[in-house]
Amino acid sequence: MVTLLHIDSSVLPGEASASRSVAAAFRTAWEEQHPEGTVIHRDLAADPIPHITADAWSAGYTAPSERTPEQSAAFAAREKLIEELEQADAILIGAPMHNFSVPSTLKTWLDNVLLLGRTAGESPSAQSTPTIVVASRGGSYAPGTPREGFDFVQNYLEAVLHRTLGLDLDFIVPELTLAPRNPAMSELIPLYEASRNRAFEDATTKAKELAERLAA
Protein backbone atom coordinates (compact mmCIF):
# COMPACT_ATOMS: atom_id res chain seq x y z
CA MET A 1 0.00 0.00 0.00
CA VAL A 2 1.51 3.29 -1.11
CA THR A 3 1.43 6.69 0.56
CA LEU A 4 1.15 10.08 -1.14
CA LEU A 5 2.14 13.18 0.83
CA HIS A 6 0.10 16.07 -0.60
CA ILE A 7 1.07 19.62 0.38
CA ASP A 8 -1.09 22.63 -0.58
CA SER A 9 0.10 26.17 0.13
CA SER A 10 -2.09 28.50 -1.93
CA VAL A 11 -4.09 31.07 0.05
CA LEU A 12 -6.88 30.75 -2.53
CA PRO A 13 -9.50 28.02 -2.08
CA GLY A 14 -10.54 25.31 -4.51
CA GLU A 15 -10.80 26.15 -8.19
CA ALA A 16 -9.78 29.76 -7.53
CA SER A 17 -6.25 28.39 -7.12
CA ALA A 18 -4.41 27.02 -10.14
CA SER A 19 -1.95 25.07 -8.00
CA ARG A 20 -4.74 23.47 -5.95
CA SER A 21 -6.76 22.59 -9.06
CA VAL A 22 -3.88 20.98 -10.92
CA ALA A 23 -2.66 19.18 -7.80
CA ALA A 24 -6.20 17.90 -7.25
CA ALA A 25 -6.21 16.49 -10.79
CA PHE A 26 -2.95 14.68 -10.04
CA ARG A 27 -4.33 13.33 -6.78
CA THR A 28 -7.55 12.12 -8.41
CA ALA A 29 -5.62 10.21 -11.07
CA TRP A 30 -3.27 8.87 -8.39
CA GLU A 31 -6.16 7.63 -6.20
CA GLU A 32 -7.73 5.91 -9.19
CA GLN A 33 -4.54 3.90 -9.55
CA HIS A 34 -4.16 3.36 -5.78
CA PRO A 35 -7.70 3.05 -4.34
CA GLU A 36 -6.33 1.29 -1.27
CA GLY A 37 -3.49 3.77 -0.77
CA THR A 38 -3.03 6.47 1.83
CA VAL A 39 -2.98 10.23 1.23
CA ILE A 40 -1.54 12.54 3.87
CA HIS A 41 -2.86 15.99 3.04
CA ARG A 42 -1.47 19.14 4.63
CA ASP A 43 -3.19 22.40 3.76
CA LEU A 44 -0.63 24.94 4.92
CA ALA A 45 -2.97 27.87 4.33
CA ALA A 46 -5.87 26.44 6.33
CA ASP A 47 -3.65 24.91 9.00
CA PRO A 48 -0.30 26.76 9.06
CA ILE A 49 2.74 25.18 10.65
CA PRO A 50 4.40 27.37 13.30
CA HIS A 51 7.66 28.98 12.27
CA ILE A 52 10.66 27.00 13.45
CA THR A 53 11.88 28.20 16.85
CA ALA A 54 15.29 28.11 18.50
CA ASP A 55 14.15 25.14 20.60
CA ALA A 56 12.85 23.23 17.56
CA TRP A 57 16.03 23.95 15.61
CA SER A 58 18.54 23.18 18.36
CA ALA A 59 16.71 20.00 19.40
CA GLY A 60 17.53 18.53 16.01
CA TYR A 61 21.22 18.62 16.90
CA THR A 62 20.86 17.55 20.54
CA ALA A 63 20.66 13.97 21.77
CA PRO A 64 17.10 13.14 22.94
CA SER A 65 18.33 12.38 26.46
CA GLU A 66 19.94 15.80 26.67
CA ARG A 67 17.07 17.92 25.40
CA THR A 68 15.28 20.34 27.65
CA PRO A 69 11.52 19.87 28.09
CA GLU A 70 11.02 22.86 25.78
CA GLN A 71 13.24 21.32 23.10
CA SER A 72 11.47 17.97 23.35
CA ALA A 73 8.04 19.55 22.99
CA ALA A 74 9.12 21.71 20.06
CA PHE A 75 10.83 18.84 18.25
CA ALA A 76 7.86 16.48 18.61
CA ALA A 77 5.83 18.57 16.15
CA ARG A 78 8.79 18.90 13.83
CA GLU A 79 9.51 15.18 13.87
CA LYS A 80 5.94 14.38 12.84
CA LEU A 81 6.46 16.43 9.68
CA ILE A 82 9.80 14.74 9.02
CA GLU A 83 8.27 11.29 9.47
CA GLU A 84 5.51 12.13 6.99
CA LEU A 85 8.18 13.07 4.46
CA GLU A 86 10.17 9.89 5.11
CA GLN A 87 7.15 7.57 4.95
CA ALA A 88 5.85 8.93 1.65
CA ASP A 89 6.24 6.87 -1.52
CA ALA A 90 5.51 10.00 -3.55
CA ILE A 91 5.17 13.71 -2.79
CA LEU A 92 2.88 16.30 -4.38
CA ILE A 93 3.42 19.99 -3.63
CA GLY A 94 1.35 22.97 -4.72
CA ALA A 95 3.73 25.94 -4.86
CA PRO A 96 2.14 29.08 -6.30
CA MET A 97 4.42 32.05 -6.84
CA HIS A 98 3.97 34.71 -4.15
CA ASN A 99 5.99 37.87 -4.83
CA PHE A 100 8.45 35.94 -7.02
CA SER A 101 9.05 33.15 -4.46
CA VAL A 102 7.22 30.40 -2.57
CA PRO A 103 4.51 31.13 0.03
CA SER A 104 5.89 31.69 3.51
CA THR A 105 3.86 28.72 4.75
CA LEU A 106 5.67 26.40 2.37
CA LYS A 107 9.03 27.87 3.38
CA THR A 108 8.11 27.15 7.01
CA TRP A 109 7.31 23.52 6.17
CA LEU A 110 10.67 23.19 4.45
CA ASP A 111 12.48 24.77 7.41
CA ASN A 112 10.91 22.16 9.68
CA VAL A 113 11.62 19.07 7.56
CA LEU A 114 15.19 19.98 6.56
CA LEU A 115 17.46 18.43 9.19
CA LEU A 116 21.15 18.00 8.45
CA GLY A 117 22.28 14.48 9.26
CA ARG A 118 18.81 13.05 8.68
CA THR A 119 16.79 14.45 5.79
CA ALA A 120 19.80 16.35 4.43
CA GLY A 121 23.46 15.44 4.17
CA GLU A 122 25.35 12.53 2.62
CA SER A 123 22.42 10.07 2.79
CA PRO A 124 19.09 11.96 2.97
CA SER A 125 16.40 9.80 4.55
CA ALA A 126 13.83 10.55 1.82
CA GLN A 127 16.33 10.36 -1.02
CA SER A 128 14.95 9.56 -4.49
CA THR A 129 11.30 9.91 -3.46
CA PRO A 130 9.37 10.97 -6.59
CA THR A 131 8.16 14.55 -6.11
CA ILE A 132 5.83 16.58 -8.30
CA VAL A 133 5.66 20.35 -7.76
CA VAL A 134 2.83 22.39 -9.27
CA ALA A 135 4.54 25.78 -9.61
CA SER A 136 1.78 28.10 -10.78
CA ARG A 137 2.30 31.79 -11.49
CA GLY A 138 0.20 34.76 -12.56
CA GLY A 139 2.57 35.78 -15.36
CA SER A 140 5.30 34.10 -17.33
CA TYR A 141 8.93 33.86 -16.30
CA ALA A 142 10.05 31.54 -19.07
CA PRO A 143 13.38 32.10 -20.86
CA GLY A 144 13.16 35.13 -23.13
CA THR A 145 10.34 36.83 -21.21
CA PRO A 146 10.90 40.29 -19.65
CA ARG A 147 10.86 38.85 -16.10
CA GLU A 148 12.87 35.72 -16.75
CA GLY A 149 15.20 36.46 -13.84
CA PHE A 150 12.40 37.07 -11.34
CA ASP A 151 11.49 33.40 -10.83
CA PHE A 152 12.74 32.37 -7.39
CA VAL A 153 10.37 29.41 -7.10
CA GLN A 154 11.79 26.72 -9.35
CA ASN A 155 15.46 27.47 -8.73
CA TYR A 156 14.88 27.62 -4.96
CA LEU A 157 12.90 24.39 -4.86
CA GLU A 158 15.44 22.69 -7.11
CA ALA A 159 18.13 23.59 -4.57
CA VAL A 160 16.15 22.53 -1.50
CA LEU A 161 14.09 19.58 -2.69
CA HIS A 162 16.50 17.98 -5.14
CA ARG A 163 20.03 19.04 -4.25
CA THR A 164 19.53 19.13 -0.48
CA LEU A 165 16.78 16.61 0.34
CA GLY A 166 17.70 14.38 -2.59
CA LEU A 167 14.14 14.08 -3.91
CA ASP A 168 13.46 12.99 -7.49
CA LEU A 169 11.95 16.28 -8.64
CA ASP A 170 9.62 17.18 -11.51
CA PHE A 171 7.65 20.37 -12.18
CA ILE A 172 4.26 21.21 -13.68
CA VAL A 173 4.07 24.94 -14.45
CA PRO A 174 0.65 26.54 -15.13
CA GLU A 175 1.40 30.15 -16.05
CA LEU A 176 -0.38 33.41 -16.95
CA THR A 177 -3.12 32.54 -14.46
CA LEU A 178 -3.98 36.23 -13.99
CA ALA A 179 -4.83 36.71 -17.67
CA PRO A 180 -8.59 36.06 -17.31
CA ARG A 181 -8.85 38.60 -14.45
CA ASN A 182 -6.44 41.30 -15.59
CA PRO A 183 -7.67 43.40 -18.56
CA ALA A 184 -4.08 44.35 -19.38
CA MET A 185 -3.35 40.66 -20.00
CA SER A 186 -6.46 39.88 -22.06
CA GLU A 187 -4.47 39.18 -25.22
CA LEU A 188 -2.63 36.46 -23.33
CA ILE A 189 -5.77 34.48 -22.49
CA PRO A 190 -5.22 31.93 -25.30
CA LEU A 191 -1.69 31.27 -23.98
CA TYR A 192 -3.09 30.94 -20.46
CA GLU A 193 -5.70 28.45 -21.63
CA ALA A 194 -3.09 26.41 -23.47
CA SER A 195 -0.85 26.40 -20.39
CA ARG A 196 -3.76 25.43 -18.15
CA ASN A 197 -4.84 22.56 -20.39
CA ARG A 198 -1.27 21.31 -20.66
CA ALA A 199 -0.88 21.43 -16.87
CA PHE A 200 -3.99 19.31 -16.30
CA GLU A 201 -2.87 16.83 -18.95
CA ASP A 202 0.59 16.64 -17.39
CA ALA A 203 -0.90 16.12 -13.93
CA THR A 204 -3.00 13.16 -15.06
CA THR A 205 -0.22 11.65 -17.17
CA LYS A 206 2.47 12.01 -14.50
CA ALA A 207 0.20 10.54 -11.83
CA LYS A 208 -0.50 7.46 -13.93
CA GLU A 209 3.15 7.07 -14.96
CA LEU A 210 4.30 7.38 -11.38
CA ALA A 211 1.71 4.86 -10.20
CA GLU A 212 2.95 2.38 -12.79
CA ARG A 213 6.56 3.05 -11.83
CA LEU A 214 5.91 2.36 -8.14
CA ALA A 215 3.89 -0.75 -8.93
CA ALA A 216 6.70 -2.24 -11.05
Automatic annotation (TrEMBL):
It catalyses: 2 a quinone + NADH + H(+) = 2 a 1,4-benzosemiquinone + NAD(+); N,N-dimethyl-1,4-phenylenediamine + anthranilate + 2 NAD(+) = 2-(4-dimethylaminophenyl)diazenylbenzoate + 2 NADH + 2 H(+). Its EC number is 1.6.5.-, 1.7.1.17. FMN binds at residues 10, 17-19, 136-139. This is FMN dependent NADH:quinone oxidoreductase. Also exhibits azoreductase activity. Catalyzes the reductive cleavage of the azo bond in aromatic azo compounds to the corresponding amines. Quinone reductase that provides resistance to thiol-specific stress caused by electrophilic quinones. Homodimer. Its cofactor is FMN. Keywords: Flavoprotein, FMN, NAD, Oxidoreductase. Transmembrane segments: none annotated. Binds 1 FMN per subunit. Belongs to the azoreductase type 1 family. Residues 4-163 form the Flavodoxin-like fold domain. It is an enzyme of class 1 (oxidoreductase).
